[in-house]
Recover the amino acids of this structure.
């Protein structure tokens, strides 16, 4: 049963008002950056004041507002301020500059950006290429040569201004979240208030956070995970969120203890990095009850639970466009699965990615999704009608993910469709090869991509890009793989990198690795005779 029954009330402002009425003086948000702490009541009043300031600048219902801030109080307050006005939040990755920044800002068509002073220079550098941006609201001290409005001028404004009552309905857009861009330029997923609210409710049903609990997160607020599975999730039940600016595996356990966290979220390589820290008999001395992790293989999940004395390890399958389609509790779900789909909210199929025809149970295909009720899925990609039509062809949202579904309806994630590799007549999931590589004690991270084969027939070769924790030869990597993988899945190419290119949420930008192809630093098993490399 949803925490808030009526979908008419599934809006951010209505949810915040409810939280303030019930838990007004309870702590809600704690920010390591700036050292500020806010109660539910303070968040409501201060976000209303910023809304009044934005309203005075001409921002109203349906207007897009860019937010380019780190994990600090002004981000959440600005985000909530857009909700009061029925405006649309457009978060911006703070690492963006040049083309990436220009693409997002221009595609959003927003005229106003709320920006941290540290990032103003990036806007100035791109100013000739920005076609719609007219106004900066600056957090901090802007460079003297830049005309900007200080967000501090909004602080004293009336918190019950004349725009009261012009807020959003559940079917209105709440945000445009630009995807991480692992396969190319970011796309702006249009998310309604109902879509955002359901994602948070579904997550709450999985992690079972309660009043007074604490969620520790390092994930950036410009990403949907931090916003909806941490901040919005806590707002539903009267819990609090401890937001940190940067993740450090060596500092993680200390942060867990000092924050008193009962819940935490990890993405990508964060869990493996934590597990690779030197173990201690005191690792279980913490208050953590639930770890939320994506991805979350069964072996590491069990290792984490035992080592840190965590009651529950959970995971989900979903994304920005579709929300949380299935959930996995490692106490209940089948090991290795992504859980079952909740038929109250979603309908799914596994289809042939070329024809959209349904494939038999247990065969791998592309997962496509439809919502059972209106306004609960992405409404398309803002400013990109062709990409919208492509994603929603045949009236189903195409996830681009390869999954299989067993006879009992359990989903199993295999890979991204574009990361499926065909070699020697066999289909290979890059994730399977990466799993074997990561098990090597000298391999800290690994990403496997397809590169063109010199054999005719349109097949691929495998290239393994690895980050090492200690020196090891390419021959040793091939030997390790040869003992654990079928011959056709052993990467022909190995390249050692200082770091894998990633999005801020730790997803590997594989298209960059594919585009780099074979370089002068790539080791080629095809050029090895015995164990001697040809010159």
């Amino acid at each position: 049963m949803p925490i808030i029954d009526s979908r008419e009330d599934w809006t951010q402002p209505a949810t915040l008002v409810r939280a303030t009425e019930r838990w007004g003086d309870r702590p809600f948000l704690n920010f390591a950056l700036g050292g500020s702490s806010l109660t539910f009541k303070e968040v409501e009043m201060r976000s209303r004041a910023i809304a009044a300031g934005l309203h005075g600048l001409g921002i109203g219902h349906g207007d897009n507002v860019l937010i380019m801030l780190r994990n600090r109080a002004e981000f959440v307050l600005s985000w909530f301020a857009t909700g009061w006005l029925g405006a649309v939040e457009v978060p911006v990755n703070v690492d963006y500059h040049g083309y990436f920044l220009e693409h997002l800002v221009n595609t959003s068509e927003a005229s106003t950006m709320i920006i941290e002073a540290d990032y103003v220079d990036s806007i100035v550098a791109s100013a000739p290429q920005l076609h719609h941006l007219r106004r900066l609201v600056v957090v901090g001290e802007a460079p003297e040569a830049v005309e900007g409005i200080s967000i501090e001028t909004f602080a004293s404004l009336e918190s019950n201004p004349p725009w009261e009552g012009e807020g959003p309905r559940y079917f209105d857009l709440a945000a445009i979240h630009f995807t991480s861009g692992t396969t190319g330029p970011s796309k702006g997923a249009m998310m309604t208030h109902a879509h955002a609210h359901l994602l948070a409710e579904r997550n709450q049903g999985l992690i079972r956070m309660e009043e007074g609990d604490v969620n520790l997160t390092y994930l950036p607020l410009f990403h949907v995970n931090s916003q909806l599975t941490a901040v919005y999730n806590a707002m539903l039940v009267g819990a609090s969120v401890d937001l940190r600016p940067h993740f450090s595996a060596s500092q993680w356990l200390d942060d867990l203890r000092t924050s008193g966290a009962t819940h935490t979220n990890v993405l990508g390589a964060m869990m493996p990095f934590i597990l690779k820290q030197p173990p201690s008999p005191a690792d279980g001395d913490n208050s953590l009850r639930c770890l939320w992790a994506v991805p979350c293989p069964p072996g590491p999940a069990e290792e984490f639970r035992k080592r840190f004395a965590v009651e529950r390890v959970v995971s989900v399958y979903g994304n920005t466009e579709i929300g949380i389609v299935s959930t996995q509790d490692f106490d209940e779900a089948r090991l290795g699965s992504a859980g079952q789909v909740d038929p109250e909210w979603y309908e799914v199929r596994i289809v042939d990615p070329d024809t959209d025809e349904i494939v038999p149970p247990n065969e791998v295909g592309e997962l496509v999704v439809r919502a059972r009720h209106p306004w609960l899925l992405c409404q398309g990609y803002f400013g990109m009608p062709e990409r919208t039509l492509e994603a929603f062809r045949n009236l189903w949202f195409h996830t681009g993910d390869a999954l299989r579904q067993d006879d009992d309806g359990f989903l199993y994630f295999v890979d991204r469709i574009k990361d499926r590799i065909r070699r020697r007549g066999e289909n290979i999931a890059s994730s399977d090869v990466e799993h074997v590589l990561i098990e090597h004690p000298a391999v800290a991270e690994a990403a496997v991509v397809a590169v063109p084969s010199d054999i005719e027939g349109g097949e691929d070769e495998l290239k393994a890009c690895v980050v090492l924790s200690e020196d090891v030869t390419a021959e040793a990597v091939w030997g390790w793989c040869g003992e654990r993988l079928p011959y056709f899945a052993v990467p022909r190419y190995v390249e050692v990198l200082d770091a894998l290119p990633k999005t801020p949420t730790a997803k590997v930008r594989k298209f960059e690795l594919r585009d780099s192809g074979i370089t002068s630093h790539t080791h080629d098993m095809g050029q090895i005779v015995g164990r001697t490399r040809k010159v």
User: Anything to note?
Assistant: Confidence is low (pLDDT under 50) at residues 529-535. The two ends are 67 Å apart (CA to CA). Residues 424-533 form a domain with the GMP Synthetase; Chain A, domain 3 fold (CATH 3.30.300.30).
